[in-house]
Specification:
By secondary structure, this protein is α+β, with helices and mostly antiparallel strands. Helices cover 25% and strands 36% of the residues.
């Protein structure tokens, strides 16, 4: 028991000694530094990993990892660093006039477009199929496509037909038929790509309403001499619309006869019954006669008489007037003789 007590007292004296105390302090300091060094190493490793995974643009990569060179070389190095360190690489989506850069680790074109927040319409087309895998540096162009239906309406303006009529007072006009515009409709189907029409198909092109010509009747420049009426229609040149033949630029003269006189054909000598060469224009032929300048309208007539000047070919027609004075006033004229029937 005395030996053990002595051993304990010696141990206490050793612990109280200066050398032991210094050794203990040194051991504790070494352990503390070792623990601090391990903590710093772990923090540095964790910090480096977080920066690589989060760094999605060249602006966030430290300068020492992307040394400056020309722009393309720098970008290539950045993509290489990002892919090798974190598995990410750059791809691009072009749509609506804008280009968006997206950092991805792979995936399909459809996923890339979705990450770029670009919505695709039902008819939109990408430069690379949606199901294909995205490669580093891919530029996916989105082409906006749509169809549009365009309806064009064209007004078909009516024409105006001017004609003369002996039933209208000279110098006056009457609307016989009111004109109406027509309508033509064209329907087009257009293919629009990125805002431009690239294809156009005509789906319909038809006249929905035919125009109605306006017919205006005018009185002859001068009142017709003859009271006869064969109910003809005339054009804007004072000419019948329907006739069998015409003798243009013929010479005419005028004559008169006492009341009750008869013609060579046995008809009464009255205004409207005219003299002709029956070998050229048979008796009973219905005529329409006017001056070539339209200033004198004799009007409807019937071939009913003849005379020496006519048989000699000096004139083609001799027009009957109601008085001698009137026949003299309307002497030799150049006339057009229309054979009606």
């Amino acid at each position: 028991m005395t030996g053990i007590r002595k051993l304990a007292l010696n141990a206490v004296d050793c612990i109280r000694s200066r050398a032991f105390a210094m050794s203990l302090v040194s051991l504790l300091a070494a352990l503390t530094m070792l623990q601090a060094a391990d903590s710093m190493a772990v923090y540095a490793a964790e910090s480096d990993e977080t920066e690589i995974e989060a760094g999605e643009t060249e602006a966030e990569i430290p300068e020492e990892e992307a040394p400056e060179a020309d722009e393309q070389e720098t970008e290539a190095k950045i993509i290489k660093v990002e892919r090798s360190a974190s598995g990410l690489f750059a791809a691009y989506v072009e749509a609506d006039g804008n280009r968006k850069k997206v950092m991805v680790s792979g995936g399909t074109v459809e996923q890339l477009v979705s990450k770029a927040c670009v919505e695709l319409g039902d008819m939109d087309v990408t430069s690379k199929p949606l199901g294909e895998t995205v490669e580093p540096g891919d530029v996916i162009a989105v082409s906006r496509r749509s169809y549009a239906t365009v309806t064009n309406k064209e007004v078909l303006h009516y024409e105006t037909i001017m004609s003369y009529s002996p039933n209208v007072h000279p110098g006056k006009k009457e609307v016989l038929v009111q004109g109406e515009d027509g309508l033509r409709v064209e329907v087009l189907r257009q293919l629009i790509v990125d805002g431009e029409v690239v294809e156009e198909t005509v789906k319909k092109d038809e006249v929905e309403k035919e125009p109605v010509a306006e017919v205006i009747l005018m009185g002859f420049p001068s009142a017709p001499v003859s009271p006869l009426d064969f109910d003809c229609e005339f054009d804007a040149n004072c000419e019948p619309l329907e006739y069998t033949s015409v003798h243009r630029g013929q010479k005419s003269a005028g004559y008169s006869a006492p009341a009750g006189a008869k013609t060579a054909s046995g008809r009464d000598a009255i205004v409207g019954h005219v003299a002709v060469d029956p070998k050229v224009i048979p008796y009973g032929t219905k005529l329409f006669i006017k001056s070539t300048d339209n200033r004198h309208i004799y009007g409807y007539a019937i071939a009913a008489d003849t005379g020496t000047a006519l048989k000699q070919g000096l004139i083609t027609v001799d027009l009957f007037y109601g008085s001698y004075e009137e026949s003299c006033t309307n002497g030799i004229r150049d006339v057009d003789i229309f054979i009606l029937e």
